[in-house]
Automatic annotation (TrEMBL):
Protein biosynthesis found in the keyword field: yes
Organism: Myiagra hebetior
Protein name: Methionine--tRNA ligase, cytoplasmic
Keyword tags: Aminoacyl-tRNA synthetase, ATP-binding, Ligase, Nucleotide-binding, Protein biosynthesis
Gene: Mars
A single GO molecular function term of this UniProt record: methionine-tRNA ligase activity
Limits of the Methionyl/Leucyl tRNA synthetase domain: 34-311
Any one Gene Ontology BP term: methionyl-tRNA aminoacylation
Pfam entry (one): tRNA-synt_1g
UniProt GO cellular component terms: aminoacyl-tRNA synthetase multienzyme complex; cytosol
Classification via InterPro entries: aa-tRNA-synth_I_CS, Met-tRNA_ligase_1, Met-tRNA_synth, Methionyl/Leucyl_tRNA_Synth, MetRS_core, MetRS_Zn, Rossmann-like_a/b/a_fold
Catalytic activity: tRNA(Met) + L-methionine + ATP = L-methionyl-tRNA(Met) + AMP + diphosphate
Amino acid sequence: IAAAVDIWARGPAALPPPRQAQTPVLPVEGERNILITSALPYVNNVPHLGNIIGCVLSADTFARYCRLRNWNTLFVCGTDEYGTATETRALEEGLSPQELCDRYHAVHADVYAWFRISFDHFGRTTTPQQTRIAQDIFQRLLARGFLLQDTLEQLRCESCGRYLADRFVEGTCPFCGYAEARGDQCDKCGKLINAVELKNPQCKVCRGTPVVTPTQHLFLDLPKLEGRLEAWLERTLATGDWTANARHITRTWLRDGLKPRCITRDLTWGTPVPLDGFRDKVFYVWFDAPIGYLSITANYTDQWERWWKNPQQ
């Protein structure tokens, strides 16, 4: 505090010279290197104030603070563009999913530019880099035995001739009775749902009644990671700044035992699964989208691994 008062009294002349901008921004040996991301906004709509206040504005404020401190700072973000929500919105607007993403990515970029959000790079997830990195992570998981194959009972709409992934089906929540629950979760009670558990299911496209049909999918074998995750959690809870809510939810998952998590979907819009027998499927958006932080950085610089695989700096 005394040092701050002294510098304040001496005025701007006492401040260190501003950092010289470099392009691209890369980690520098011996300096404090800060990589900032904010939650990737979903692309199927116009962003509103809640989106900006919820994640983008706070990250921008922190990025500006870091730059004022002369810390070497990279701030990246981008639009999350795969998944069933994009497909359903594209159908509603009479566009292809790619046309819809192109339209709303431009809208998002313009809105954030108008608010002067100080991204170093604002990208998107529908890129060759996203496909390459996501498929590489998948192949590594496969080679190390962290994936398993199983049959899912899945709703299929015979009128549309397609399996109904997640948001292509709506019905009554089996837990709380909410009449507009989606095929992946209930927005009222927050519980995760398997679409076949919905009561009175309906196809969102034609409003027909789907039938239960078996189909093969790939799963992330989370139980195999449970012991390592618990050990990691104990270390980070002791040293990190976890919120009470985050602690409670994570401990609840571990207390109840982790379950295998499906990472594939019967869709056409998404990152293709590079494995025989599953090449007509794509990755589930919640497997694919977090990898967007890496691929967006990779589209900014081919030296992206210096940010994401460099814990020493």
